[in-house]
Write a structure and sequence with these properties.
- The protein folds into two domains: 172 residues, Glycogen Phosphorylase B (Rossmann fold, 3-Layer(aba) Sandwich); 140 residues, Rossmann fold (3-Layer(aba) Sandwich).
- The chain contains 14 helices and 13 strands.
- Helix 1 packs across helix 14.
């Protein structure tokens, strides 16, 4: 029997969530006897990663296309996987993918709806349209997006969401001196962390200042810091990026975990990875019943409307109450091993069913 081969094109940092989906599925495919190759950017953070199945690719577009074409011509994989329809991925699928190779387009969210502006927006939307047409197999991390794609003519898109973080939580002491509400996520302007800052302002107006600890980085981080400084929200602390153990430790010692998420297309079209990390931390989660969130947290989370007042009201109640017990969200079945089984079923022509 011919050994099946798959090549994952990863355009982010190897240790970031941008590569986690491909890396986790790829590693499990290898355990199942597949031949797996990864193409990742040749950047400082990736020095030393070059190996038999990890190839460092030039970051400049033409060099990237030429080098990728050479590797794909030599390997002739059965499948090539692209996470999100980035322009580089589209150009690679146009000019460098062998005809015998099936293209897997995988959408973890819907950039064409929620990202970019000006001319770049049109390039992103064209890339999204083209990759839907070009892909032999379409996968989405959101059931809503799979249904949306099917409604516009994508034949049988496969729903394969994210899974639990393949990492143990550290056994470290409580890093907080006082009961602290914790948020973790990317500070990008199209997400909804502004609700928390406005909630902190409302609580200040009530004479309350519960400690709120915000973990993460992004282009909107400095603006958020400036807003808190101007409003004198001294109880709101920003850590920036934390390494895995430090971040996970703060999640597991949180008094309550915070995840504001508005009911909009960008949020319904994605599977927020933090849902799994939050659930693994087993602390109470204050969030909104939007998109994939209730799929994995069921009725065990604390759900409120996506408004500053609703979050302020519930934060006031929770922070004034005795520390709640840990919550078992029952997500143990959502592993990357099970996701890999569904990936194999999808590329084999069968529906992935949950």
């Amino acid at each position: 029997m011919t050994k099946k081969t798959v090549c994952f094109v990863c355009l982010g940092k190897w240790d970031s969530t941008l590569c986690l989906r491909a890396k986790s599925i790829g590693e499990n495919l290898e355990k199942s006897g597949w031949s797996v190759t990864f193409l990742i950017p040749d950047i400082i953070e990736h020095q030393g990663l070059d190996s038999a199945n990890i190839h460092l690719m030039p970051t400049k577009l033409l060099s990237f296309l030429w080098a990728s074409r050479s590797i794909l011509k030599r390997l002739r994989p059965s499948f090539i996987h692209f996470l999100n329809p980035e322009v580089k991925a589209v150009l690679l699928s146009m000019f460098a993918v062998p005809r015998s190779c099936q293209v897997i387009g995988d959408w973890e969210d819907w950039h064409a709806i929620s990202r970019d502006s000006g001319l770049k927006k049109y390039a992103t939307r064209f890339s999204d349209w083209f990759m839907r047409k070009r892909s032999d197999i379409v996968i989405t991390a959101s059931r809503w997006l799979a249904d949306e794609f099917e409604s516009v003519g994508v034949p049988s898109p496969h729903y394969i969401p994210y899974a639990m973080l393949p990492r143990e939580f550290p056994k470290l002491p409580n890093p907080f001196q006082h009961p602290t509400a914790v948020f973790m996520g990317s500070f990008h302007s199209n997400w909804d962390h502004d609700i928390l800052i406005d909630a902190a302002s409302e609580l200040k107006a009530r004479g309350l200042a519960p400690p709120i600890f915000l973990i993460g980085r992004g282009e909107d981080l400095n603006r958020c810091k400036d807003v808190c400084r101007k409003r004198e929200l001294h109880n709101v602390q920003f850590s920036g990026y934390l390494d895995w153990d430090d971040m996970l430790n703060r999640l597991q010692w949180a008094y309550v975990l915070l995840f504001p998420i508005r009911d909009k297309i960008a949020n319904k079209a994605r599977c927020p990875f933090k849902v799994f990390q939050y659930a693994q931390a087993k602390r109470p989660i204050l969030t909104c019943r939007v998109g994939e969130v209730p799929t994995f947290l069921d009725d065990k989370a604390i759900y409120v409307e996506a408004t500053a007042t609703a979050f302020a009201d519930e934060l006031e109640r929770v922070m004034a109450s005795p520390r709640m017990e840990n919550v078992d969200y029952g997500i143990e079945a959502h592993t990357w091993e099970s996701r890999t089984e569904d990936f194999i079923a999808a590329i084999g022509g069968n529906e992935a069913v949950y």
